[in-house]
Amino acid sequence: MTLTHPDVTLLAHNYVRPEVQDAADYVGDSLELARLATRTETPVLVVAGVDFMAETAAILNPDRIVLHPEPCSSCAMALRLTPADVLAARAAHPDAAVVAYVNSSAAVKAVAEICCTSANAVQVVNSLDEDEVVFVPDRNLAAYVAARTEKTVYPVPAIGCCPVHQALTASEIRAARAAHPGAEVMVHPETTPAVQAEADFIGSTSAMIRRAGSTPATTVIVGTELGLIPRLEREAPGKRFVPASPYLVCPDMKMITLDLVEAAIARNAPAVTVPEPVASCARAALERMLALPVE
Ligand code: 13P
Ligand code: SF4
Q: Is the CB of 248 under 6 A from ligand 2?
């Protein structure tokens, strides 16, 4: 069921409630949503996801109306970092380029050279001439990148992480494996290095969906936010998807209800606005990322 409206495109993240995903025109990971925001043409975009996703769509589409159905829905990791933190890191590492994970505010993106998502972080870092990188704000994704590139990576802030993925433990993965012999373990790169070391596959939410379709395993242990599981069940019918932990719930993603989406479309509000010069500077960092070839 899509909320068909000729002037509106509804973009939904893989973690939002299943009924919102069902109503959406497109469902995807952060990179796909950012790309779709530039490729669709309706005058109005509704973003069902946390605030940085709606903000990213608004930055990339200054002439369109971008609605975020619940402005309180924000990313707890993004809230932990200010532009002043980035500027201090720049002063400490003057030869480094700043790479901002899209899970950051517009003001943080505005002081970065380039953005990345979990789907393209290694490609983005490898695209830089600089040998040193200040990577904000996820230390776990920073460690994932550092292990797969030749660059020196400085994670900022030192304690930056997603509280949802940080809560997943290596012992939970081992217990799930013991309970489901032969299962494949997939985790998001926002999980800790210790959890990633236990996994068979590490990828963005959409990379996990693709892997679920291609893996020969019939049972998959899923180490990411639980909203992905109904999507995996739809995309890979016949396979069994088991949560790696019952605690993998992002409350902010669940704030986006179908009622709020419908109300936003009916009222044409709340709209996201990003002031200048932040919008232009953040757009440069996002467009530099989007200009890289699709891998
Ligand atoms: P993806 O880009 O993999 O969809 O992840 C976004 C996110 O918020 C993960 O917690
Ligand atoms: Fe942010 Fe974590 Fe929620 Fe993703 S799951 S939106 S990184 S708090």
A: no
